[in-house]
Fold each of these.
Amino acid sequence: MTLAEQEAILTIALFAAFADGAQADNEREEIRRIAQSLAGTAGSANPSRLVQDVLLRRVQLASATGVLTDPGQRNLAFEMAVCVCDSDGRQSDAERQFLATLRQQLQLDAAQTAVFEREADALVEASETVVPAAAMAATATALPVSAVLPAAATAELDKSILNYALLTGALELLPQSWASMAIIPLQIKMVYGVGQAHGVQLDQGHIREFIAAAGVGITSQYLEQFGRKLLGGLLGGVAGKLGRGLGGAATGMAMSFATTYALGQVARRYYAGGRVMSTALLRETFQELLAPAQQMQAQYLPQIRQKAATLDAGQIMAMVRGR
């Protein structure tokens, strides 16, 4: 895949990220930051420029789709756009209209894309059941500030957080374009489990707000995962079907391990402390925990790769559904 083709697909993904016009300022800033971080992965590519080009309308969608002449790359671009639109939940009317326009410009018919769209929709529907229905109707119960778990329970919670980190790191190493979509639902499931361990019943809305307050963007996180796959050479299918080998994935591509582990540890401190941390303190704590988590990531890379080699679509869907 040439540099121009990589940039065209990434540009289309950025158009998808801003398709509904609902991205908050902090999410836009997070996308800009991620674009800067991807520059080191991309060789001579300039993701930061691409973000500015899309935001300032210096580039048109048609110019990006026109670069892609290979049918496999056109399918890949559409799949990426669907995943980005689905990363924060069900598609809005604006996102559906964007995808219809994109399909037309990529010269794909509905039959070509129907199977993938059904798979992505099924994952979105499954993610809505991550938090049990009983908890969805419940209001988070306040805890005393001194709420502390016994040592054995704390150790078990740490083990659970590590397991979620290993799993999400493995998902990022998979070449399937929809695999990374499972990361956010699993992070939601992890935070729910942390709250539950401290006697707090949480709903999806509260958990998503907590994740955002910690500085982990929903759409931006998926864009980072996708960008590392694309620019690192892990993505590259034929006729829209991505290869199934793990390829030469570098240590830095398993960033979701560090993000998930740090998020889990922040959640543990937050709910153990009675949920009194401010947004600023949540973000500061997350950033402090992220660096050591990134160092841990290198230590656990063999286990991440081993787990990635054993995962299939059915297992991933079952884990998202909580089975």
Note: DSSP finds 15 helices and no strands in the chain.
Amino acid sequence: MHMPFSFKYKPIDTIRNQCIRILVVLLFLLVTCIHCMAESGIEDLFTDTFSVPGWKVDGEAYRYSPQSLYEYINGGAYFFIGYGFVELTGANVSPVTGENDAVAVDIYDMGDKLNAFGVYQLRKDSQAPSLGIGTASFGSNDYLVFHKDRFYVEIRAFFSDRKDQGVLENMASNVAEHLPGDNSLPKELAYFPEKEKIIGSERYISGGILGHAFFDKGLSCDYHIKGKKVTAFIVFLPSVRDAVRSVKRHKTFLKQSEKKYLPLEEFGKHSFISEEPYYQKIIVIQEGARVIGAYDLNDVEAGKTLLADILRKIKQTTAKQK
């Protein structure tokens, strides 16, 4: 005998939505676990591996997120957040002798090498010699900065009397030795050809190349070409569509500034030459999800050669990384 029974069907959309919610929760838990492991690893640096003769860590390490960083450095938080800041882990260090001296060691996790490099380049003293710590470093008797991999590190001293710079260098070396990652520079710096480049002029900019919001994040580098300083830049966009849109917005800006632009079809249909307000001639080209250019040009042909070399270097570097 057939026994009828009722079965309540759920719409497919409802089931799909529930699955999506479950996946989101699982992904959140996974990211949280990974993040927690990363946090504990940096904290261990102050508990298990910090070893500087005559100095000890006071209490527990402190930690700040993008939401709370302003509590520690007030208005300076916006600068770091603009460069992809993930988390700050730090600790206070004092002499084992009980003197009133103090040192603050702050480790900024910037998410990736490019962000850490960008922060360091904008904070560094161009006149100060490198100390050979991490990827690059500089410092004085009471202040030392270095970057390594995705980390940017500041060490600030509050000494009651003048002390040898070696104190901070020992601390920085100890921290650098135990930070994860390597001392290599961001791979994107290889996009700039070496010929006529001004050594050390590379910068990673967050907040607008040439002050343009539509050129938000990218690299710039200075060159000496025929006795004139020229700046090349590479803007990184999320997609080809975004890159094309940025070029169009640039053209709109130039038109509003009463600057004419002429197409450069040899570099593609979205490439042009113009004059940027407050600068000399500028060449802009779009290549994939990048916008590449050079400004302060007094020799257009030399500018074209430089951009052609940059395009070649990008293709070569990208091919090696595959």
Note: Confidence is low (pLDDT under 50) at residues 1-10, 22-40.
